Amino acid sequence: MNTIVRWPFLLILLSLLLTACSNSTSQQQSQTRELLPDPEKFEHDKNLFGKDTSQFVFVPDTAIGMISLHNSENVDEFLGADVMKWLVDEDLPKTSFLSADDKQKLTVIFHPGGVRKEFSEFLIEYNHDRKTTRKTNWMTVAFETESNVALGISEGFLLSKKGEPQSLVPSGDLRVFHYEINDYANSLFLKKYKMPVYYADYSFKDGYLMSFKFGFVYP
Fold first, then answer.
1. CB–CB of 207/38 below 8 Å?
2. Across the strands, what pairs with 68?
3. Which H or E run includes 191?
4. Which residue from 52, 70, 54, 64 is spatially nearest to 198, judged by alpha carbons?
5. Is 34:152 a contact under the CB 8 Å cutoff?
6. What is the pLDDT of residues 51-105, one digit of tens each?
7. Where are the alpha helices (DSSP H) in 126-170?
8. Are 61 and 147 in contact (CB under 8 A)?
9. C-alpha closest to that of 154 among 37, 54, 73, 63
């Protein structure tokens, strides 16, 4: 009689154990999915988000963290009061800052003739050269835009935020998604900043964002 009673109990216990193992495996796969390069992942994500990206109207980003294009507000708090002294005049005056873990690099680009501490372009990339040592005053580990664009996102995630690019340019082993606003006569955005052209370039490798740069074209 005791054997008859135990068998159903053992079967239920075995079923619960198998279910728990299955859920644990699914969670581990979900957590590691973003780490696995997949050239077709952007198509999967685009379908996952359920959005027709061809119908999007491109909305430009203007901010990284607490600083914005053509705006000196929060620059001292984020980059330091002496940021203009650190500019190095290459093709355009610029200086760079690292994330808290040294893995990401933010470069702020100043256009000659502009207002002090108002930067016209931002470049975000992984820190490969290890030459930059200066860090932002706010110890962030990821430089992110107001639309949650950051290094490591998938192509599908970008499309779900920005829509289809005006052009897709292959560059070595990279795919560069290019967006542009250049119709000054009909653009309230360009008129607000009094700038002729805004651009944003997102460089992907194996479906993941390796670097991005956005801002205004130097007149």
1. yes
2. 63, 71
3. helix 188-193
4. 70
5. yes
6. 566 667 899 999 999 999 999 999 999 999 999 999 999 899 999 999 999 999 9
7. 155-162
8. yes
9. 37
